[in-house]
């Protein structure tokens, strides 16, 4: 009886560590960055919360997003239009990769870089939120996408 209970607990711990925790990290990060990216574009609207109608078209960065990078974000060394375009692209491509668990470590690293830029140059007082993102990003960087991912299905080079 105790052996069966111990095996059940071990199975539950392994399931959480190798499947559910990385899936939760991937989904949480993907939703956060996707929603942010959706505020920067027109032409392609996929509201994952279901409040807006779907719109499939060619995405274009909004004038408002460029103005935000000019007036509020003011990143050093980057033209605001280029910065807005790069951010919008990253906030759509990297979350999609996280969602399906493909190139997860690369995607997490990209989002970690974005998070550090946001923390250092844009919203330094938002460190509690950014620390939460960083924890999930570091988990995915270190342990990978988990069992419920395309990364797990692809053959690995040794």
From TrEMBL:
Signal peptide: none annotated. InterPro entries: DoxX (IPR032808), DoxX-like_oxidoreductase (IPR051907). The chain crosses the membrane at residues 106-124, 130-150. GO terms for cellular component: plasma membrane. The keyword Transport does not apply. This is DoxX family protein. It is a multi-pass membrane protein. Keywords: Cell membrane, Membrane, Plasmid, Transmembrane, Transmembrane helix. Belongs to the DoxX family. Its main location: membrane. The lineage of its organism: Bacteria, Pseudomonadati, Pseudomonadota, Gammaproteobacteria, Enterobacterales. It is found in: Cell membrane.
């Amino acid at each position: 009886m105790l052996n069966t209970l111990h095996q059940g607990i071990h199975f539950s711990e392994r399931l959480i560590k190798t499947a559910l925790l990385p899936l939760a990290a991937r989904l949480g990060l993907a939703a956060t960055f996707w929603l942010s990216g959706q505020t920067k574009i027109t032409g392609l609207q996929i509201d994952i919360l279901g409040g807006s109608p779907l719109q499939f078209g060619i995405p274009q960065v909004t004038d408002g997003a460029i103005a935000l990078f000019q007036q509020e974000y003011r990143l050093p060394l980057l033209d605001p239009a280029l910065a807005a375009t790069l951010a919008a692209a990253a906030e759509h491509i990297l979350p999609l990769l996280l969602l399906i668990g493909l190139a997860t470590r690369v995607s997490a690293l990209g989002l970690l870089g974005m998070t550090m830029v946001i923390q250092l140059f844009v919203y330094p007082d938002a460190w509690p939120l950014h620390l939460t993102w960083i924890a999930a990003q570091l988990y995915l960087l270190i342990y990978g996408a988990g069992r419920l991912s395309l990364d797990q299905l692809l053959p690995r080079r040794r």
